[in-house]
Specification:
Elements (H helix, E strand, L loop, with lengths): L5 E5 L3 H12 L4 E5 L2 H11 L3 E5 L7 H11 L5 E5 L4 H10 L3 E4 L4 H34 L3 E5 L5 E4 L1 H7 L3 H4 L13 H12 L4 E8 L5 E10 L5 E7 L1 H24 L4 E4 L4 E4 L1 H7 L4 H10 L4
Parallel strand pairs: 1-2, 1-3, 3-4, 4-5
Antiparallel strand pairs: 6-7, 6-10, 8-9, 9-10, 11-12
Helix pairs in contact: 2-3, 3-4
């Protein structure tokens, strides 16, 4: 954990500084040093280290003055003060400056390591959280489907760019909605039942028409379920093109059926892999007086026919 961290050591005594830097180099990923508070503040602004270790009494700018300036720039940066002072007046000033840890001089290696670990743990957790949030954000924004997060009552908490694009609303507009605002009223009962089952841990998959900003609705395939924190995550896939294709195919099939009836012609086909035979209604009317099941039985009985 310490090997992933950087530290800035500020000490005006050259021998003490060299000894401290040598000890830190065995534990930390990167070690920087400065000779006084003014140089230390400048180095901090340039380097932005994870942790700062400083002496108190230094020329030009003392350790507490420097610590106060650093905390203004970066409140979450832990500062460890190495000092020989122990009076209450000094401690109050150090607490007011935002000092996180104190090490008595001369600094013992075990105490130094423990102080560094105590400062590094929350920093490491914060880095992991930021990395996780970055991965989550990348996943959300690069997804080809719309992703929506809502609370248990259906109020939207987050939506990705694809979800906004699908429905035509901005992120800010969607975050003002409840799920019911995007679903047709006649589907509210089914929605309530699906939400209840999702909260009980059962994943849901359905098709629905969702409201678009232009006043229309789009056909979507919706899958949703409960996350570990109780949040509901829904993935929306736009199936409008598929629905149009299905409607077009149905229309074509209806037209073909009408044309065959008028022309008194039909068609049939066989799947050579499954050996399933199918035929149009007009073919059946033209050629068969027996039921289709009887025909299939006779076909197999006579070797295919």
């Amino acid at each position: 954990m310490l090997r992933s961290m950087s530290v800035l050591c500020i000490e005006d005594d050259e021998d003490v500084r060299n000894e401290m830097v040598e000890a830190l180099a065995r534990k930390m990923g990167k070690v920087y040093s400065a000779t006084d508070g003014e140089e230390g503040l400048s180095a901090f602004q340039r380097i932005m280290p994870d942790i700062v270790i400083s002496d108190i009494q230094m020329p030009r700018m003392d350790g507490l003055e420097m610590a106060t300036a650093i905390k203004r720039l970066s409140p979450d940066t832990p500062i460890i003060i190495a000092t020989a002072f122990s009076d209450s007046h000094f401690l109050l000033k150090a607490i007011a400056a935002g000092i996180d840890k104190f090490l008595p001089k001369p600094v013992e290696k075990a105490a130094l390591r423990e102080a560094l670990l105590q400062c590094a743990r929350p920093l490491c957790m914060a880095k992991q959280l930021r990395a996780s949030e970055a991965r989550y954000r990348t996943m959300m924004e690069q997804a080809s489907d719309g992703i929506f997060l809502s609370d248990r009552e259906g109020r939207y908490l987050e939506v990705n760019a694809r979800g906004c694009e699908m429905l035509g609303f901005s992120r800010e507009e969607i975050l003002q909605f409840n799920i019911r605002d995007l679903v047709r009223p006649e589907r509210h009962t089914a929605l309530a039942q699906g939400m209840a089952e999702a909260l009980a841990g059962k994943a849901q998959l359905c098709e629905s028409k969702l409201r678009h900003k232009n006043g229309g609705h789009i056909d979507c395939e919706v899958s949703f379920g409960r996350l570990s924190d109780g949040t509901i995550m829904a993935t929306l896939r736009d199936i409008s093109a598929r629905k149009k294709m299905e409607a077009s195919l149905h229309k074509s099939q209806a037209s073909l059926t009408r044309a065959q009836r008028v022309a008194h012609v039909g068609n049939w086909e066989i799947d050579v892999e499954s050996d399933n035979l199918s035929w149009s209604d007009e073919t059946y009317r033209i050629a068969f007086i027996r039921r289709p099941t009887q025909f299939c039985q006779n076909r197999h009985a006579h070797g295919g026919g």
